[in-house]
Amino acid sequence: SQKIEQNSEALNIQEGKTATLTCNYTNYSPAYLQWYRQDPGRGPVFLLLIRENEKEKRKERLKVTFDTTLKQSLFHITASQPADSATYLCALNTGGFKTIFGAGTRLFVKA
Amino acid sequence: NAGVTQTPKFRVLKTGQSMTLLCAQDMNHEYMYWYRQDPGMGLRLIHYSVGEGTTAKGEVPDGYNVSRLKKQNFLLGLESAAPSQTSVYFCASSYSGTVQGGAEAFFGQGTRLTVV
After folding, report:
1. Which of A52, A104, B15, B99 has the largest CB neighbor count within 10 A?
2. Would you call A46 and B108 a contact, using CB atoms and an 8 Å cutoff?
3. Which residues of chain B does A100 touch, with a Cβ-Cβ cutoff of 8 Å?
4. Residue range B61-99, pLDDT digits in tens
C-alpha cells in the first residue's frame, strides 16, 4: 500500500543547533513534495516545495533535500530557535489532485 | 485578508444529529478541500472541489457530503453524525490543483468536532 512515514517520536534539540526531520515514502513517484508547519490548535502553514528534479531547496534557515532513489526527504532548520517548536508535516503529490500527508514530527527547541 | 475562515471552531453533537461546517476563502482560489486530522494520522482528504459547482470524493468520503454553490464557499455536511467522526476538520484552498504543479494549500484554523 502507499505509505508516507515521519518519525512519530518528538525531536528535542538545543537552541542554536540544526534540527533534521525525515520523511520516507514507499510506492510513490511524486512529482513534488511539500513541508508544512503546524502549531497546536492551528491549521498547517506552507513552508517549502521541492520538485522531483531538484536535489535541494533553501529558504532562510530552512533547507529541504529530496532523494528520489532513497524515497526520502530531509528537512533542516539551522540555528534553531524556541519559536521553531511545532509539528512539521511532509506532504506528497501522488498524482492528479491527491496529496498525502504524513502524521508529522513534533519538534521542541530548548532555550 | 482573512484567508481561509472556518465556522464553527468547536462543536459537540449527539449521535445521529446533523450539522454543516462552513469554509470561506477570500483569495479567489479555484480549488478547495476538506480534510480530517486524527491523532497519529496524517491529514486525510474527505472531499474536494476544482471550481464552483463541482465536487469530488477524496480518500475518506463516507458519511459526508459537500457543496460548492459559490466559488468562495465550501460546505461540509454530516447527515447523521457518528462517534467515528469525532475529529479536527480542516478546510484548505489553493489557486490550482496539484496536477498543475504543486500549488501550496492555505488552511483554515480548524473545527474541533466531538460526537457523543
Report:
1. A104
2. no
3. 42
4. 999 999 999 999 999 999 999 999 999 999 999 887 554
3-state secondary structure of A5: strand
Flag whether residue B2 sits within 8 Å of chain A, measured between CB atoms: no
Report DSSP letters for A63-78, one per residue: EEEEETTTTEEEEEES
Q: Are the beta carbons of B34 and B90 closer than 8 angstroms?
A: yes
Residues contacting A21, CB < 8 A, separation 6+: A6, A7, A11, A74, A75, A76, A88, A90, A105, A107
Task: Find the residue in A nearest to B39 (Cα).
Answer: A103
- Subunit contact B59:A96, Cβ cutoff 8 A: no
The helix/strand/coil state of A55 is coil
Q: Is residue B35 predicted with pLDDT exceeding 60?
A: yes
Asked if A99's CB is within 8 angstroms of B104's CB, the reply is no
What local confidence, expressed as pLDDT, does residue A9 receive? 87
pLDDT, mean of residues B15-44:
94
Minimal CA–CA distance to B109: which of B95, B78, B94, B88?
Answer: B88
Distance, in Å, from the CA atom of B19 to the CA atom of A83, rounded to the nearest integer, reads 37
**How do strand B111-115 and strand B10-13 relate by DSSP bridges?**
parallel
